[in-house]
Amino acid sequence: MPVTPAQRLWIVVVSGFLAGTAHADPGSLNPDAFDLSGALDRDVAPTRPGFELVIGAGYTQGVGGAGMIGSVEDLAGPGGHLEAQLAVRTSARFSVGAYGTLARFRRGDLIPDGDRAFGATAGVQAVWHSRESRALDPWIGVGTGWRGLWRSPMGAPSSSEHGLELLRLQLGIDYRISPALAVTPMIGASVSLFVIEGSAVSDGLSQVHDNRLNFYGFSGLLGRFDLGG
Predict the structure, then answer these.
(1) Topology of 49-228 in CATH?
(2) Between 20 and 30 A from 79 (CA), which of 8, 68, 119, 147?
(3) Is the dihedral of CA 115, 104, 71, 67 positive or negative?
């Protein structure tokens, strides 16, 4: 059976490739030539004990009980939040400090146009870092504190809910850009319970009788600044 020009070309190419491989110097081949992991996850100096400031922003949304208002989702939809933390890095792997957040929510399902909903939290938190001498450093934060939620109707006094943020959990991965700065994508969740509430129709704050838990999820991007000792 005659060989076509196309088949003859493939025979030449394959033969040349095999011949070149057979005479190649094995030491000249770099098996890690396309391994980019080292470009990101490199060795870094361990973070020194001292103060650190964390600031960031992201998305948040809650569900669950909200006292006389009914449910969190009736009052507030998804929203954006700002976060700040000030901590003491007691070692390369551990820090403890305070956190605070502010949130602005879209109006909920039962809230008329023009009304606004806001939220805030504050408390204490401990953070454990898993890889103190690598550029990529997964960490976990656990905290507890206070949570507040406000509804601000147009042309009317605000109502509010206040309670305990029973458990706040954060997960993130620091990427160390320089000895003084790391950026970290973060996700988290918290469990809260409102215990007192106030409105324009009541005199001051009163006890919440509908003690249902509420749950908030949040995600965002943080910047961690090492301030030194």
Answers:
(1) Porin (2.40.160)
(2) 68
(3) negative
